[in-house]
Each structure stands twice: as C-alpha cells, then as structure tokens.
Amino acid sequence: MENQRLLIWATFGLMLWLSYEAWMQDYGPQPQAPISSETINAPTETPLTDDLPPLPAGSGDAATDGPSLMEPQAVAPSPATTAASVHVTTDVLDLTISLRGATITEAHLKKYPIAKDQPNKVIALLSTENGDTGALQTGLRAADGAPEANHLSTFSSSRDNYELSGDVLEVPFTWTDESGLVVEKRFRFARGSYRIDVVQTVRNGTATVWRGASYAQLQRRSKPVDRSMFDVDSYSFDGPIIYDGEKSTKLQRDDLLSDGAYSVTASDGWVAAIEHHFLSAIIPPKADTQRYNIAIINDVVVASTIGPAQRIAPGAEMEYPTTLFVGPKLQRQLDQISPKLKLTVDYGWLTLISGPLFWLLSKVHTLVQNWGLAIILVTVLIKLAFYKLTEASGRSMAKMRKIQPRMKALQERYKDDRQGLSQAMMDLYKREKVNPAAGCLPILIQMPFFLAFYWVLLESVEMRQAPFALWITDLSSRDPYFILPIIMGVAMLFQQRLNPAPADPIQARVMQIMPVVFTGFFAFFPAGLVLYWVTNTLLSIAQQWRINKVVEQEDKKRSTGKKVKKNKDSD
User: Fold this and answer.
1) Closest by alpha carbon to 268, among 251, 246, 253, 237?
2) Domains of the chain
3) How does pLDDT run across 321-349, given as a tens digit for each residue?
C-alpha cells in the first residue's frame, strides 16, 4: 500500500512538473541572441535592401543608416488629418483607414463582442483611443532620395465609405508625386474572411529608373502581464511572435526591454502580435527574403518587415503584394494563408498532440453542431482509446481495495517492525498477484494527451462564447452558478470511495480534502474545461465500478473452484 501511495504522489508531482514545464516553455524567458544598438544602427550592405534609407519616424527624421524601426508616434494621425479617413465595413470587419499612409488605424471585429451580455460592444484589435495603440502600416522605401509613398505620405480616395455587398470588396488609394511617380494601394476584402490583401502598384512616370522596396509595419500596445488564478485568460501569451521559415519564437516583453530589438532575415516567414484568441499579422510574399525588426518603444510593440529592392524602368510599373490578417485565430482561415500561421494558436510544446485533437474536436462539432456536446464525445473517444491501458491500472486498484483489510492487519501486527512489514507486504502482493506499480505506465502515457486537450479547450477561439445547454451559455467563461464545479467535486469524492483508502491517516485526510480543493480551483476555470473534467471523471467512475465488479466475480469463481476441488479431494 505504501508503494501505491508513493506511486500516486509521484504521478501527481509529475503532473505538476509537466504543467510547470509547459508554463515555462510558453511564458518563461526564451533564449535569443541579443542585438546591440551598434548592430542595429550600423550601415547595412546586405543585398536585401541595398542602400535604402531608414524607415521614417513619426517626425520624418532619419535616425540610422539602415532599415530601422519606426517610432510609435507614427501610429496616430496628426489633428489636421484625423478626419481624413475612409470607413470600410464587411460582414466581419469594421475598419478605419487613414489617408495618412493609407494606414489601418482601427479594426473592430463585428462578430466578437467583448462580453456576451453586451453584443454591441465588440473587440477592437487595432485602435488609437484610450492608449490601446494599434495600427497596420504599409509603404515604400526609395533609394537615392527618390520620391516614395511611405506610411507618412498623404493618399487620396474617391470615397470616404466602402461596404461589402458582394463576395469581394476592393478599396483603392492613390498617391501622386509631381515628378510623375504614381502609387496605387489597393486593399482587397472577401466575405467571411479576416484576411486583407494589399497590393502597392508603382507606375514610374519619371525619366529615370526608380529603385525601392515595400515594407509593412505592425504597432501594438505592450503592457506588463498581471496574472491571476481567477482569470485563466491572463496566462495566455500576449505579445509579438515571429516565424522565420523554420520555427516560431514568442518574444517576451522583458527580454525585448532588456536585450534590445530582435532582428532576423528570413524567407517564407511572418510576424504577428497575439493575445488570447486574436491576432494581427503581416505575411510577406513567400518568394521574397525579408528583414524583420521587432522592438518595444514607449510601451508599444513595433514590428516591421522590409523586402528586397526592385528596379522599375521609366514608363514601367511593378506590384508589391503583402497579406495582412486582423481577427480571431480561426485555424481554417490561418491555414489557407500559411500552414505555419496556425502556430499563433498558443498550444505551447504540446502542439503536435493538440493539433490533431483540435482537428478531431472540430470534425465532431461539424456533426453535432454544439461545442459542449463535441467536448463530451471527444472525451469519450479519448477514454475508449486508452481503455486497455487504464484497465490495468483499474484492476490493480480493485485488487488493492480487496486486500486492504489484510494489509491493515499486517500493519497492526508489524507496527514496530518496518522491515518485517515490508517483507510481509511483498509476500501478500506476490500471493495475490498484485502489482502496485501496474498503473504507472498507463497514467504516464495518457498525461500528455489530457494536458494537450486542456490547452485545446483553453486556446481555441471557436470555443469563445459558445453555448452548451441550460445555464451554460458560454463555454469560455466560468460557470455562473458553479454547478459544474460542484458536480465535479462530488464525482471526485465518489471516485475516491471506489479506490482503496490510504493506510496512512495523514494521506487519508489529504485525499479527503482534494475534492474540495479541486472544486475551488476549477470554480474559476472556463466551463468547457470543467465539462471535460467532469466527463472524464464520470467515465473513470464507470470504468472503475465495472472493473471492481469483474474482479469480484473472478474472485468468487476462483473461490468456488477451490471449494469444489477441495471437496473432490476429500471424497
């Protein structure tokens, strides 16, 4: 019995360790090569941007000799141009595009209210109000002092309002220089999509070759993390993330503030700012090698990407495409843009398991059209998949429960002889064919799957404000009446009664208060997570009850067989 208690506590400690490792992997300091200010400010000779001047700051001053980070003051238009903007609405987005740089300065998600009981107050991913800084800027950098349409240039638009009426909406902006250079910037929106395709077309009407590159910049507020056990959302990563074509890296606020800017040159990459269920992202063309710079300036994340310089002959034109994304982390849409963009869904180190689990969950949801019911059915499927493994653990627990009175008798007999007690217990295990460690491997194998499913339910935006049934109207928030946590606590208490009680009185008292502790802990968890745990606990109870009955029947048959054999021998 002592060995089994040690096994249980060792397993519980391992679960805590795995959870800690997952937390450190996602939110702890991540190694990265620090980049000094000398490196950032040094003149660049890379063919990526050739001798292009620095990206302009809010004041228009050039601070360095290479492609540099822009000052966050460039986010907000000056008072003189505040009203010079275009309003764009689709079925899912409500945007404001300033004529200063044709910059997206506001983005509201029409189908995602902040709170379910306030449907008219929706999520604003990009905004310049109340210090909630956010903007998506695009522009061009020209070499040799040639004219350019950067994010500080004033564009013109034939209309001040656009609304999606068909399947596709295009919103054009134009910039013209007196030299004859014309730039048209077109935003393309599609019904039901949070993807924004931007194409900058440069028409060289000058008498000389124009040489330049396109860039894009994301600015997003950065704030210190204030975590709370009463708010599970606060443990989700909030900040910049970059994919360099090989791996994704979440950049911690403290690291960027202490080590300085993060810079990398890569192709087939992207950069984004993520929060719990939403993201703003820049996805350059795959074929182009881009230089990425990410820093925090005045509590604003500034992430820029600039491509290779191109030459445009007099009378010729060239297009510079890029893709933006402003919206929820809908994995189907992210996958259509770039398969690796799904890494913004923060499953941490369990992504290899969480991805297939989410795929299974979404397939089940397609059939039942209810995320709560889908959670229950997937939990059942997981339980069935591991049934044979957990059966070994359950049989061991049933046999331990059966011999518990004999174990207590041995403890009384050898209470002053620890060595004798250990030998007697080993003899009892051997005689009854009980292995206290039989359930170790099944538990260890299941643990990553259960933790992965936990993160799927926590991080998938599809579960946000999704109703289940009766009083559960939002699977992403806590049970308003704490009914599910109470059911879970009662189920855990009943589950304990099916298992052998610890022989040690202190362990017994600890196990008795565990349901109460877990009930209080889960009371503030999203209802979807509690529903999963309740379902898993009830299935475990049903399985253990059945195993106990089977073991009892086997013991009765064995006892009956022994009696029959004994009677025959006596005859």
Assistant:
1) 246
2) 2-19+360-562 (no CATH), 31-346 (2.70.98.90)
3) 999 999 999 999 999 998 889 888 888 77
